[in-house]
Amino acid sequence: MKQLYLLGIDIGTSACKAALFDRKGQVLAAANGEYPVYYPEEGWAEQNPEEWWSAVCEAVRQVIRKAGIQPEEIAGVGIDGQSWSAIAIDKGGKVLTNTPIWMDTRAQSICDRLNEEIGEEEIFRIAGNSLQPSYTTAKILWYKENLPEVYSKIYKILQSNSYIAFKLTGQISQDLSQGYGLHCFDMRTGQWDEEMCKKMGIPRDFLPEIVPSDRIIGTVTKKAAEESGLAEGTPVAAGGLDAACGTLGAGVIHPGETQEQGGQAGGMSICIEKYQADPRLILGFHVIPGKWLLQGGTTGGGGVMRWFEKEFADYERLMREQTGISSLDQLNEIAEKVKPGCDGLVFLPYMAGERSPIWNPYAKGVFYGLDFSKTKGHMVRACMEGVAFSLRHNLETAEEAGAKAEILRAMGGSANSLLWTQIKSDVTGKTMAVPASDTATTLGAALLAGVGTGFYKDYEEAVAETVKVTRKHQPDPEKKAVYDKNYETYLELYRSLSGLMKKA
User: Do residues 240 and 175 touch, judged by C-beta distance below 8 A?
Assistant: First the structure.
């Protein structure tokens, strides 16, 4: 039977996504599988990887059923996943505890201690990233200090995509693009630094061998085939970081090209061809060989609007039943009626602390400028503008570091909003190009399997065949002038309130 399709699997924060693509990058079928985030204590955010696997199996079965294909027609599977997991498994492959995820900041004191004992500059020299509690590094040591019964049984520490790859193939791996989550990873060479492992107290044996993201690490086992509906023997690529796969799926493979992230988290990824680290930003390897990504990663992306909808959109949900218009689309409509700049209302989107460029786990979300004239539409638009300000903050920081973005390729659910995408263009002064926004990440994962199996000869061919820009947004200079004023307020608000935030 001829193998005609590629499957991409995305392990997101609120749900997994599975999508089946033909050679041209067209989606035959897609499905989601939801799972919860647990917040047992302040500053904690964790998930159960076994719930990821159950959701993946259900989503993959749905995709195969919807597409009406035979599983044997799938040429390969690629997997991407959220960053900075610390999935502890024993020798039998059993998950020992929930994994803290990228929003988790419980290990701040461990970071403070390591930065003091080893030295911030020395850690940054090796890792190319500052040591922060949201990364994998301190989470492993948190297990050691707080869950000794778990730590004593650890065989390997896996990332989100490598855990699903393990469940599919039985093979343990660590792809290159996710290496940046550990500060004993040498960002110049792409290898573990054994001396830094010793200094940090992380056993080298915990860390799987590093492989390229498009490496076929194994094939679907009989057991995995029974659970997922895939065909036994289907090749599986190692996969990579969700932001890196989304960057590939948006067509960013050359230096200077930039992806704008509009999923649960926000931010951007600039493709660069040489080591170019800045402690205010995030540096990692691209899933494309020989390239890095200089990234800005924020906690306030599309998740801000999901939070607002959940807490304040009862009326819109009620109207959805009568009109068929989604609550998010209704919120979009009322925000569009508000003038740019929200009549002075400014929002800080720090809903789970904040990552780059301020790196403050204590940062809080703030609405500033409320009065009796403000409406729900003002608040919705302020949320959108606040996320755009955080994007601009990261882009300006990257430019100071020597990496300038010209055109931003938008991806993620937020890119479906023409208003929000235009706001980002106006705030940043950048042209926004939008490929197939909902599928960029799963497409990128699928393309890794496509190149790894020879389905495509290289990434140039893969992107040329599959990535098509559907629309562009040009910045409006008059609106940018309004936003410039609010952006200064945005920056000053954080400077003024950061001390209070730590006390809250």
Answer: yes
